[in-house]
Amino acid sequence: MNLKKGLEKELKITQNDLKGVYGFEITTTEACNFRCKYCFERNHLPEETLINSEILIKRINELLEDDWFKSQYCGIKLILWGGEPTMNMPLCKALMEEFMKDERICFFIYTNGSTIDELIPTLRNLKEQKFIKPKQSKITIQVSYDGNPIHDMNRIDCHGKPTSEICKKAIKKLHLYGIDYGLKATLPWDFFKYLDLIYEDFKSLHYLYGPKIKYSVTVDYYNVRFYEYKNIVEEGLIKIAQKEIEFFKEHKYYLTNIFKNNRSICATGKSMLVVNTNGDILNCHGSIYSKCVKDFTYSNIFNENFINKVREANALYINNYIEPKECEDCIATSCLRCNVKKYEESKKETHLEKWFDYPAQGELCDYYKLVGKISSAMSSIIGK
Q1: Helix 306-318 and helix 53-65: axis angle, to 10°?
Q2: pLDDT value at residue 362
Q3: Which of 41, 162, 222, 260 is 20 to 30 A from 378, alpha carbon to alpha carbon?
Q4: Does residue 113 contact residue 101 with C-beta atoms inside 8 Å?
Q5: What is the largest CA-CA distance in the chain?
């Protein structure tokens, strides 16, 4: 008996457990009903959506039945992205209804929470359906909430009004109906001065709704200003590090993702794709607004050679991974490795060299090294 079969028998692992889930990301629309001040799409004028549910459903089914795909993946995660993806509600609902009972399909929706009332009936039906990997939900909602006081400073609607109550209403509804959800926050560099207050806001939500509420924060890696605000950033991190130590002692886990060990490699290019509103196929949604967008566009949803193009793109990044020496020896415990931004910043020559040039953003590297130092000190204090 070989090792693989032995593991399957001993742990009752199925073939599907050993296979991945492919990320199929769809830009349903570029329109949005919010005007978030830091959004990299804020100066972009929405274009006409050319893709439709029929062509998407056709391509998704072709992938599911393709021999190459079935050898690598057990299912697809349909990721709905925008703009605000639910501004194209007909397309969202058409996809959810079509694959409602298909155990090979699950859904993930990015949203600002403004349309949750209209979505709830469909979401409640979806959550009762099975997905091929039982530990993964059939439907997961990610609500964009930055935590106050900064949410209402930065995330405003098209009339300039604050939106935190809209988000909190969505959280309450999702919690009430038992729909899997999480929160995602953005923290501009100059707002690190509010970090301890933001932390307390998330902690209060955590105690109100339970462990689904975590402070999962992303810094602005497109316009890195760490050196400009280094003192403010360091002071903010140290303040919440002290809070995290106390939180960890009580709960045995952190409230934030800031100090967690996470240097995982992005799935971009390897096991996911994104379709933009023109039907173009790119590596990820970060590629869509990149100044190098032509370098990341490799097919179109209307191309009958679609699957071969996807397979070739996957193979390129999976078979040619480069781990820079600087990364191997780095003290950072957590690191955001956005391949698209590294590619833009890189001075290297070839496509793959630029794609995997993680040290290209030296300023961002220094931020993560600072976080690594604080994280190591926290671990010593906690005793792990």
Answers
A1: 60
A2: 95
A3: 222
A4: no
A5: 66
Annotate 94-110 with DSSP letters as a single string: HHHHHTTT-TTEEEEEE
The amino acid present at 368, given as its one-letter code, is Y
Structure tokens belonging to residue 357: 């040039």
Contact 321, 337 (CB under 8 A): no
Per-residue pLDDT for 272 more than 70?
A: yes
Residue for token pair 């830009």: 27
Closest by CA position to 26, among listed 98, 129, 74 = 98
Question: Mean pLDDT, to the nearest integer, of 296-323?
Answer: 92
For the record, the structure tokens of 233 come out as: 């950033």
Q: Supply the pLDDT for residue 218.
A: 93
Confidence of residue 202 (pLDDT cuts 50, 70, 90): very high
Pairing status of strand 280-282 against strand 297-300: antiparallel
- Contact call for residues 243 and 198 (beta carbons, < 8 A): no
Stronger pLDDT, 45 or 273, i.e. the higher one: 273
Residue 89: in which H helix or E strand, if any?
Answer: helix 89-98
Cα(13)–Cα(347) distance, integer angstroms: 45
> How far, CA to CA in Å, does 241 sit from each of 371, 374, 375?
10, 7, 8
For the chain, which residues make up each domain, given as ranges? 19-187+263-317, 322-382
Polymer length in residues for the chain: 384
Q: How wide is the angle at C-alpha 154 spanned by C-alphas 213 and 334, nearest 5°?
A: 50
Q: What's the whole-number mean pLDDT along residues 58-79?
A: 97
- Cis peptide leading into residue 188 (ω within 30°): no
pLDDT at 353: 94
pLDDT at 8 over 90: no
User: H/E element holding 324?
Assistant: none
Here the tokens at position 380 are 């010593």
Measured in degrees and rounded to the nearest 5, phi and psi for residue 335 equal -155, 130
Average per-residue pLDDT for the chain: 92
96-131: pLDDT as tens digits? 999 999 999 999 999 999 999 999 999 999 999 999
- Residue range 19-187+263-317 forms a domain whose CATH class is alpha beta
Closest-CA residue to 62 (of 288, 303, 284, 279): 303
- Strands, E assignment, the chain: 20-27, 73-81, 105-111, 139-144, 180-187, 217-219, 272-275, 280-282, 297-300
CB-side neighbour CA atoms (13 Å) of 62: 16
Q: Is 51 left (phi over 0), alpha (psi -120 to 50) or beta?
A: beta
